[in-house]
Amino acid sequence: MDGEIDPEELASLLDEADADAGDGTDGGTDAGEATDGLRIVDIRDQRAFDRGHLPESECIPFPELTTRIAELEGADRIVTVCPHGVASQQAAQLIGSYAGTQAARVESLRGGIEAWQRDAGELVPTDDAESADATAGDADEGPDAPF
Question: How far is CA 68 from CA 21, 41, 55, 88, 94, in A?
């Protein structure tokens, strides 16, 4: 793990990626695969992710991380995200220890989604988020730390 990244710095990286995509130099990117190999990995469960997540992020719930970690091979930079920035540090350590991602810069979002909303921007709901459980309220959907 290479430490933590502040919400403002991550927002700046996303703005740069959007600007690059808009100038025609990059054929466009799919959600979760921003320009220059940046991958933002939200480790909350799918339902929480669908209600609101960081732009360009992808959902890989913490319990699935060990079986899906190969999906991150080839990324240049990986940022893990959770509600408060604690479990995402452990996720970043796990990702950084995997042979296929050891060349990547792996960081945790400092302060998590809470800090993102306070300092950098709004969360984006998944297109079919209307089907998500609207009665869940502001429950903390973060995973329990496994170690």
Answer: 27, 11, 21, 16, 12
